[in-house]
Amino acid sequence: MLKLKTFLCSTLLACSLFSIPAQAKLTIFAAASMTNVLEEVKTQYLATHPKEEIDFSFASSSVLARQISQGAPADIFISANQKWMDFLAEKNVIEPKSRVNLVQNSLVMIAPKNSRLAQIDVQNAQWQGELKGSYLAVGDPAHVPAGKYAQEALTSLNQWQAVENKLARANNVRAALALVEQGEAPLGIVYGTDAEASQKVKVVAVFPENSHAAIEYPAAIVVGHSNQERVDFLAYLQSEEAKKIFLKAGFVVK
Prior knowledge:
By secondary structure, the chain is of the alpha/beta class. The protein has 10 helices and 10 strands.
């Protein structure tokens, strides 16, 4: 009798499992600077794809790329620069034909909203006097794309050596933004979209485009994770609907 009950329970459980339609789940590893905009894209996408589930992991592109190379369960990777996507391409971890450039960004200097500063000429080194013994908040140039762009820009303007030892090096660009938001740093360098997303900072300068490499966001599907749901979502990121969201957030769409 016990065996019969066990058999019936197992059979009923199996039937119930097979009767429930499986949810399609996408796990996306994306640069921290994409946090707000991708959450909005997700909301709009799920309105027409209610059976799907999307999870994000936001961090510095370098951290995410290394995690993916070590087997982290990401389906799609969106990087804040080409370097870390190239890193995975060289290790044959992404599907080459799926790789696309989604959007571009700008590089800006920010100050707390209540700062007396209204505008800074970043091409004139006199702005460094505004640090007044404090630090310039940036993503760590050793591994954070936003920090690398900041280093490129300041080097191009012949100012890197003067500020190299005056940096508050954050683990990602949103952490650098937070330092300025909280008043722990009088100035910071972030992406234009980070400043746009914050109510606590203001842009006091925009770095010349020719002072740093183009800030591009490549995306690709991770090897072994390609299916119709992931292909469809990557295509949606390039759609006119998604472009409107990116544009509203301050990204450059070409």
